[in-house]
Design goal:
One of its GO terms (biological process) is DNA alkylation repair. This is SH3 domain-containing protein. InterPro entries: AlkB-like, AlkB-like_sf, ALKBH3, SH3-like_dom_sf, SH3_domain. One of its GO terms (molecular function) is dioxygenase activity. By secondary structure, the protein is α+β, with helices and mostly antiparallel strands. The chain folds into two domains: 98 residues, SH3 type barrels, CATH 2.30.30; 207 residues, Alpha-ketoglutarate-dependent dioxygenase AlkB-like (Jelly Rolls, Sandwich). The protein is built from seven helices and 21 strands. The strands form seven sheets. It has a four-stranded antiparallel beta sheet, with no helix packed on it. A four-stranded antiparallel beta sheet has the order 8-9-20-17.
């Protein structure tokens, strides 16, 4: 075809400047300019095979950065990695043509220039580790390493080992704090007339007990057909509360106003039960019981009301703390082993 008809007619060995590489229905054609400034379409069949392979590199590419990776779907596609420097020489709807560094030319998805859409819904970590309710002791005292062993249907139970309690309260020897308080509490209860062993429908209970209340309270503790009269807090209770409550994150006006002291000797124990008496509940139905174990190490078990077997067990040594919070008294059974 003669020059001027939109096509170039060049002789072998003539150099041309490639201005555009055809695509789609123009595949196999280039738009070029000769040294004499003639422009037109030229079939790639007119060029040597090596020149055809490198035609794209004669056009100044646009340099871009891949924001995500892409895997080839068929021959002629390039594999793109996130962060690759892309030399883009041609763009088609949804597709780019170019090369990475000085590699082979090929096609790849234009999606590599966009960030992937954020996932829908909460992160998996948020599902595996849901935030605990703010009313829990572990949330009120975030710097104290409370270990929540029960988190189920609004029921929560946590423990703080004796050695942690002693360490946080500034005791050099782990056993010193627990030993001190077991002696002081034992003497304090003796000064109040000693432990009581009231009788119920099934006879004398298999433990000693003492019901202590804050000044201004006088309500007895009624449970299982028995009633235990209240005794006022002795002076040492203020010291004990000040230390224990510092690990629970409770303000002084939130400190417990009653304390049930139980003594287990030898084979003494307590069967499955729930501390669900009306005086234990708050307006929202939640209940927080903070328990301090003194003396010999004993296991403490919990189970759902619908189960016959224990599902959680805490080994509580002398000086250890544990909590039962939320709906635990409604949905869980409690029982220190004999």
């Amino acid at each position: 075809m003669a020059p001027g008809s939109g096509y170039l007619s060049v002789k072998p060995g003539v150099k041309v400047k490639v201005l555009y590489i055809g695509s789609a229905d123009e595949e196999g054609w280039i738009f070029a300019e000769t040294e004499s400034a003639e422009r037109g379409w030229l079939s790639t069949d007119s060029a040597a095979p090596r020149d055809v392979q490198n035609l794209e590199r004669k056009i100044q590419p646009h340099v871009m950065t891949a924001l995500r990776g892409w895997l080839p779907e068929r021959p002629g596609h390039l594999r793109i990695r996130k962060g690759d420097q892309l030399y883009v020489e041609r763009q088609e709807p949804g597709w780019l043509y170019g090369f990475v560094s000085q590699g082979t030319c090929g096609w790849f998805s234009a999606e590599v220039l966009t960030k992937p859409p954020p996932p829908k819904g909460p992160r998996p970590g948020a599902l595996l580790q849901p935030r605990l309710p703010d009313f829990l002791v572990g949330q009120r005292a975030p710097k104290v390493p409370w270990n929540y062993v029960l988190e189920d249907r609004g029921c929560f139970a946590a423990s703080l080992p004796a050695e942690k309690v002693a360490s946080l309260l500034g005791n050099v020897e782990n056993k010193a704090w627990g030993t001190y308080w077991v002696k002081r509490v034992a003497q304090g209860i003796e000064d109040l007339g000693g432990f009581e062993r009231p009788s119920g429908p099934l006879g004398v209970i298999a433990r000693g007990t003492k019901w202590l209340v804050k000044e201004g309270c006088s309500c007895p503790y009624r449970y299982s057909g028995m009633e235990v009269d209240a005794k006022p807090f002795p002076s040492w209770m203020d010291d004990l509360l000040e230390q224990v409550m510092s690990l629970c994150g409770l303000r002084e006006e939130e400190w417990p106003n009653a304390c049930n002291v139980n003594l287990y000797v030898g084979t003494d124990g307590l069967s499955w039960h729930a501390d669900d008496e009306p005086l234990m509940e708050t307006e929202d139905g939640n209940c927080c019981i903070i328990s301090l174990s003194l003396g010999q190490e004993r296991p403490f078990q919990l189970k759902p009301n619908e189960s016959q077997e224990a599902t959680h067990e805490l080994i509580l040594g002398g000086g250890a703390l544990c909590t039962m919070e939320g709906q635990t008294q409604r949905r869980e059974g409690l029982g220190p082993s004999a």
